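SAMPLE LOG
Freezer: B-3
Tube label: C17
Construct: single chain, 135 aa
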Amino acid sequence: MTQLTGQPATDDDVVHLTVPADGGYLGVLRTATAGLAARLQFALDEIEDLRIAVDEACAMLLAIATRDAELECRFAVTEDALTVEVTVPTVRGATLPAESSFAWKVLTALTTSAAATSADGRATIALLTRRSGGY
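STRUCTURE (predicted):
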């Protein structure tokens, strides 16, 4: 299995979290994001940027989630990067904001790369952040 980093990910380097698709549970995902980024020795400002990006991605997905859905979050850790993939079942006909939208500008400004896919009634947003050098 190869992630956005282009590097193979092993099951030991992957964390899965599933929470109700409700804004009240996003703190759990933000905390997990910060903890994993800290483990990779990201700088404090990089950790905060990634927390904000995960929060923004989840907000985009919550807006199109089915009732009583679960938000699935997959964190893949490599030597110098953290990939976060958030997936949710979507209501029929739902679409994510356009890549030209403010929400996408936030995601791309706060991460190394951001991508979205939608298929089989599910939407996924993947965020890749590489640790910057010199820390």
